[in-house]
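Entry for the shared binder. Reason: the reviewer on the internal report wants the predicted structure included alongside the sequence.
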Amino acid sequence: MDLKAGQAGLKALLLDGASSLFPGYFALVMATGVVSIACHFMGLRPVALALIAANWIAWPALWALTILRAVRFRAQLVRDISDHQRAPGFFTIVAGTCVLGTQNVVVIGATGIGSVLWWLGLILWFAIMYTFFTAVTVRARKPSLARGINGAWLIAAVSTQSVVVLRGVIDVGTPPPEAIQFQVITMFLIGCMLYLAIIPLIFYRLTFVPMTREDFSPPYWINMGAVAITALAGSILILRGETWPLLGPLLPFLRGFTFFFWAVASWWIPFLFALMTWRYLWMRDRFTYEPAIWGMVFPLGMYTTSTYQFDRAMGYGFLDPIPEVMVYVALTAWILGVAGLLRRVTLAFRG
């Protein structure tokens, strides 16, 4: 009897999780993957390997819930696709897939897995990118800028650059066909365009529209994460400049543009910490777990990895103290996020 009750409870939990699944939950995979890569670069290999195992649990589980939602709760899924607040989260499916591939290539050298995930990520990118922008464009009733825009919109840029980064770590010694080189460079520039098009709207929202403490949510950290992964993508392309023929003439442009994006990512960090201080200390808001919290963990890990690769691409050699410190900040944030997630799952199962 207890076994049947347990099975019924598990089934109810899965159905409830699928019906209310946050579209941006693949940010968990993004955060886990990039923190793993950062730990690998900083010499914390056992942690990096453990996070690969964690990601190979999270990624299939989230896919299972997503497929279950598409089959059993199609109306909710379709409604989310044109929702200005929730729909950008679907881009985490692309980014999570590509970050998982990058994690496997960088940490354990699994280029075969990385190649499969790159093609999957590329297909998902085309499907989600044009579905999203078409859906929000033709929507009859649109929200105001204040209600419709947030940092999650920048995951469109993140997903684009994640495809670039994965291809860049797959083809290290031997260049890919020129058609793929051309496509990767094109996507890097599209990612830059998306960031530069969306960030003015978000910056306007932050500085000219009144915000409550609840308005400043974790997705605003994507303001920094999107530009950090753009700097990482640029750094990877610079490092491939000697082996990819199409990159040679573009290297001066890439160095300047990459420096620009890394500098912008660095500028965001003190501002975002100041806003967090305002919300949780000055306004005394209570910190609670929410799925969007992974949108804060990912940028911390991404800035760590981005700075490490940027330093090597530019040949500076004096930026190492930044990732050496930031890796522990990112890892701590990941541990706190997992603790909150496990507590949420435990309470839901008991309830």
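Summary line for the report: The mean pLDDT is 91.
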